[in-house]
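Researcher: Next entry in the queue.
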Amino acid sequence: MAALTLSLIGDITRAADPDPGAAPLQTAPPQRTPPQQALVLQPSVGLEEIYTDNVDLSATDRVSDLISRLYLSLDATLDTARSQGHLDGSVGYDFYARQSFRSGFYGTGNGAASYALVPDLLTLKADASTADGALSIIGYSATDRRGAPDVAQLTTFDVGPELSGRTPDGLEVKAAARFTQILYSNASGGPLLLLPSNDSIGQFTAAVATDASRPLQLENSAEYLRDTQDFTTVSDIQSVIYRVGAFGLIGRVGYDYITQDQLHISAPTGSVGFEYKPNNSSTLTVETGSRYNRPAWTANATIEFSPRLLATAAYVEEVEPDQVGVARSYFAFTQAPLILPPPLVPTSFGVPPNVANATSFARTATFRGAYHDDANSLSVSGSWADREYLTIPGQDKTLVIDAAYTRTMRPDLSLTVHADYGRSFESPTFPESTAIGGTIELAYRLNSHTDLTLNFSRSQTRQLGLGGELVTENAVYETIRRAF
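Model: Structure for this entry, 484 residues:
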């Protein structure tokens, strides 16, 4: 099922620092166990058969179709003394039995690579992701298929050097230059009138901090960012953190300068707040103050209630074009494995909803919780986005909630139930609407190399204006995959 929450991953980690573009200062890289081989390749081939009762996602003239998908996948890992990388991707072809004009190639995947130019000091890093998804929650498909109406392909790529080191007197120094591209393409069976614009973004961040293990920590972080839509932002923030036991007091002052065409913001920023660490795996920070000549709040929490029950939440406010917001969310997605416990780390990055070619004052709140034991896993996530546009009339407000439960009945047999809900309250480009979807999946491992999955999915969307158009789709599909 084309889950709505794929468009929202990454935002959870964005409130960890008032300068979201800077690499986290206090996060140590995870300990890696070197593999026996420097390069490990795991190819696989799969065949999927999908039956849908509403291939056009029409409210009136429902047409069924059978879709055959043949795909190749590759899971690759590289680990040497100076190079690390991972690729998880698939390419294939969706063949529609009736509506052949919807047939076409598709690709999806995530990749990351790094090379130590100067070991323990300077590293060249690159990340890439591509996925398709609906541009809005209106009429989204019950299945993730090429050629469905309103589907776009989002490809995100960033590359640049990162410097990280410590001076002889104990100062932590970090700097990074990053070039990012956000590329949209039409993946539907017809024209896309509201396809977002592509964007290229150049960014430089730098940060200096004293030793975080001492009671008093001082930080200075700066960012310069410019994109091809003539959006430019420059910021510099000085921070003071005083810790006593599990508590810490936070104070920040700085300045923001933003310009884009007729938009000009030049304003001081300041905030005060607190930090609380109830255990070694949990952190809660809350700050309030002023930014962009507005009252400002930011919050971030990662809580380990027990080794089996974890949660993370964040709230962040930012002035940015939607495409820059996508880039920042993607960077946070790539950093999540360094910040969050494994059960809370998102596994894919998807198309965000209701993207406009405009700049907004964006308020984003996110939550994710996870429970797991030997036989059960449960995850619940939610996101609230409120974008007040500054360069066009209008405002966008979108809520998405997602839940998934997996029961492992035997080592070779599991059952997953997934549900999601989306609500677009207002938008300058899309009508107010709701979306409800769900999937039941039975996965069976035939042998050590072959997996079989059976799925039933349903989606239902309703426009709350324009006559209340209702669109539903039911889909049944099976997938067999053979690994080599």
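Model: Residues 241 and 250 are 5 Å apart (CA to CA).
Researcher: Noted, moving on.
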